[in-house]
Amino acid sequence: MTRANFSIEGGDPSSHKFDDDGRPKRTGTALTASAHIITAVIGSGVLSLAWAIAQLGWVAGPIALASFSIITWFTSTLLADCYRSTTGTRNYTYRDVVKSYLGGTKQTLCGIAQYTNLVGVTIGYSITTSISMVAIKRSHCFHKYGHEAGCHMSNNPYIMGFGVLQIIISQIPNFHELSILSIIAAVMSFAYSSIGIGLSIGKIAEGGHVETSLTGIPIGPNMSKIQKMWNTYSALGNIAFAYAFSNVLVEIQDTIKSGQPENVVMKKATLAGISVSTMFYMLCGILGYAAFGNNAPGNFLTGFGFYEPFWLVDIANVCIVVHLIGAYQVFCQPIYAFVEKWSNEKWPENKFITWEYSVCGLKLSFFRLIWRTLYVIFTTVLAMLFPFFNDFVGLLGAASFWPLTVYFPIEMYIARRKIPRFSFMWIWMQILSGICLVITLLSAAGSIEGLIRSLKTFKPFHSMS
């Protein structure tokens, strides 16, 4: 049976086909876990980092990137240590870990934060993918008709096309079957980030004057003090969201094969994944700011124009599309697993829910087919209904950074290690958590302000590029 059907799985744990918990043998390695992490971390958020650094400047921008990288790595190692409970039993999801160490009430709060964020991310990815698809069409339009042509077109057909593809891919039973897809997606993220870096270097080499600053875009006729404040908060939110992958960390760790302790392998994968991600973030953000200065666009690939070399920008957008196809699955698989596990426990005798059928070597489930299809349709419709949904995603990302990336890992580690209250270790961990809470609140405020501005021009089902 699938992972979601673990409650009715059978098998001898001593068999070579099963792990110590009676589930089918896990096959994940540090390489596949790193690929999952890179796929989850290096999302379309990398494209906005030049804009974020333009808001913060040469000093605060790189410091913010480095700080979020270190914090995310540190708290991820704490979370990795909590995969197994103190009795040695496995925790299969983030919520299971929270329940094991902190109790049921906090498990509920964790679930709300985690799954709300995951749903928001999948909707945001639907929008972002369609924008990249349209960008390819527009670049050819500009190339054919000239740079003055508007070449505007609706994103909706491309959102629907992405949804149809995700309905098919969503039939992959669980996280354990996503390794190849994640590796391909990770390669794509390297590709479009490298293209952006290369184009930035080329633009810098061309010369020309671009205005940059140690403190970012200066206050003046085009930037009020209030707007500068909101943009700074929003920039912090973009950076925080760019590093958020804790909501799928436990699910990734649950794919690692037995043998070497899972937390040791996961820590290696986390260090590799975050190090690689930070390197690309720094290069894209810093070189993008150097290339465009204070006029850095929200998507720095579009800043090179949809013009020349149009074919290279097209390749970058194709890579973004392929990457987000895989990233969508990485973020929605925990949602699928949660609903299917709950359904199995609620109706264990219902054959519609529990039975699987083998078709040409593939395991198919009518329940999985119907419910996952409905979920993809739901995210697709919302992506078309709210063309500014990225503002919601920014808010969700900011709101989830503190509880999922910082608060719960720290509190669970304190509970696991039985760290005394008001000891040195306890105090500095609480200080770190408090600082991150303040940053999250400020980032959320910036996202809310952007959402209010977007609502002023809101038109349902009117998403245009």
Overview of this structure, please?
It is a single chain. Helix 6 runs antiparallel to helix 10 and helix 13 runs antiparallel to helix 14 (424-455). This protein has a single domain (25-455), classed as Hydantoin permease (Orthogonal Bundle). A hairpin with a 2-residue loop joins strand 1 and strand 2. It has helices at residues 30-41, 49-81, 94-102, 104-145, 156-169, 179-205, 225-242, 249-253, 262-292, 310-346, 351-354, 366-385, 389-417, 424-455, and strands at 357-359, 362-364. The chain is globular. The chain has 465 residues and is mainly α. A two-stranded antiparallel sheet has the order 1-2.
What are the defining features of this structure?
disordered N terminus; 14 helices; 465 residues; amino acid transmembrane transporter activity; Hydantoin permease; mainly alpha
Task: Describe how the helices and strands are arranged.
Blueprint: H1 30-41, H2 49-81, H3 94-102, H4 104-145, H5 156-169, H6 179-205, H7 225-242, H8 249-253, H9 262-292, H10 310-346, H11 351-354, E1 357-359, E2 362-364, H12 366-385, H13 389-417, H14 424-455
Antiparallel strand pairs: 1-2
Helix pairs in contact: 1-6, 1-9, 2-7, 2-9, 2-13, 3-4, 3-13, 4-5, 4-10, 4-12, 4-13, 5-12, 6-9, 6-10, 7-13, 7-14, 13-14
Which shape, going by the Cα principal axes? globular
CATH superfamily: Hydantoin permease
Beta-strand content: under 5%
What is Rg?
Answer: 22 Å
Question: How far is the N terminus from the C terminus?
Answer: 44 Å
Spatial strand order of the main sheet: 1-2
Structural class: mainly alpha
Q: Can you count the beta strands?
A: 2
Work out the count of structural domains.
1
What about the largest sheet? 2 strands, antiparallel
SSE ordering: HHHHHHHHHHHEEHHH
CATH topology: Hydantoin permease
